[in-house]
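Protocol step 4 of 5: obtain the predicted structure for the target chain.
Materials: sequence only (see below). No template structures provided, no constraints applied. The aim of this step is simply to have a reference model before the mutagenesis design in step 5. Sequence pasted as it appears in the construct record:
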Amino acid sequence: MRDYDEVTAFLGDWGPFQRLIFFLLSASIIPNGFNGMSVLFLAGTPEHRCLVPDTVNLSSSWRNHSIPLETKDGRQVPQSCRRYRLATIANFSALGLEPGLDVDLGQLEQESCLDGWEYSNDVFLSTIVTEWNLVCEDDWKTPLTTSLFFVGVLCGSFVSGQLSDRFGRRKVLFATMAVQTGFSFVQIFSTSWEMFTVLFIIVGMGQISNYVVAFILGTEILSKSVRIIFSTLGVCTFFAIGYMVLPLFAYFIRDWRMLLLALTLPGVLCVPLWWFIPESPRWLISQRRFEEAEQIIQKAAKMNSIVAPAVIFDPLELHELNSLKQQKVFILDLFKTRNIATITVMSVMLWMLTSVGYFALSLNVPNLHGDVYLNCFLSGLIEVPAYFTAWLLLRTLPRRYIIAGVLFWGGGVLLLIQVVPEDYSFVSIALVMLGKFGVTSAFSMLYVFTAELYPTLVRNMAVGITSMASRVGSIIAPYFVYLGAYNRLLPYILMGSLTVLIGIITLFFPESLGMALPENLDQMQKVRGFRCGKKPAASVDREENPKVLITAF
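Step 4 output (structure tokens):
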């Protein structure tokens, strides 16, 4: 029996064909980077105050004092959701009384913004917040918009793998690109917040499905030695590039509808990729479509200037067609023993809280001091060295120590923000970026770590369940940001504390570096502190230990 990698080994690892697939699939991820974080600018909340209509007969001094003041970040600023009762101050104005001299403003009756709001145009010309007045009593709709986008991401996570298994990687890849691009374009014509949000859910479904299927397609076409680089540096780095492009678009296009149009157009540029990205030969073999699979490999060999064998895929010797008749597994198998149940609960916590930290830090960029566009760019830029660091650390060092270490780093610097004086805002920004560096590094290591912990029988299910926990974390994350409206430091204190906590819990995981991959529950490593009757699986030479690569879902 020979597996697919042995049969196609004659193609080499890094010829023109592999380089083309690597960069085209990675480039197809760039729109995911700016669509995934576009809500930062589409739903940005500018400074606002109650509108005082010009028709109200007020003197200039009363018009200037028509909004009550409040203390925010140590300075007096106009309230965003209250004004003095216009009928009352109009009478005082008519009588010639002066605010603060003849009238005690602290004793005046207040009212809500009955005539709407006026918004600052310093940062945004228009957003969905200014379009549909998602402020004050309706400010809960802004984080809900983001959370519902991630609900779409969660739903897309469920269906993307199943669709690509049934209809093929290539068709589903371009179909989900069309969903993401098409429904983003339809969003431009939204007439209400409800319409925008429903469409945003569908965009979220297409966004993650495109990401996952490109991930699967690349890992199935590329050789073993290239897959790890593709799944970390390739996909993740190009996502970060899209993330960094977003503030560039938003800086020059400050109207949300035109910005959405600009973010939609790059998706159209992916259409020509249909003629360059082939179907997965592995998937074609699983469907017993050998001729099509051979044609793709023949073209790849020709592109790499290699002479291919006359017969590449022999159905009688392909391992893929004779394996995978495994016994059925159920979600309860992840809780079958005390050891695996503990590892599962700890893994769910690790994924969810790391996801909360990553997305809360990303979504909290508009609340940082300084220029929101520059801060967003830095937030994307810091991910590139984080991915490289994660890749380098995974090659040689124990998993649980490096994941715990970067989590301690990320959580620790976030907790330091509360001791930074308000005048030193650049220090706070630097600490936020360093915190995101740690959390991003940890997040990118979780797939490999989780895949190495679980036995073959339940490995895909375990990664799927823990990935789903991370989507739940992304749904919760906008409400961590929302807490910043009450106290600027509260989100960082919570994120820092939870990140350090999950770092401590990570130390109790078993180590997986240099250990043989478990095939059944009995071969799983034991949680630290557990008594176990059997010794863990023996260490194997690192060169003999197969590299673990598992798709995101």
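Step 4 remarks: DSSP finds 21 helices and six strands in the chain. Residues 322-326, 532-553 have pLDDT under 50 and may be disordered.
Proceed to step 5.
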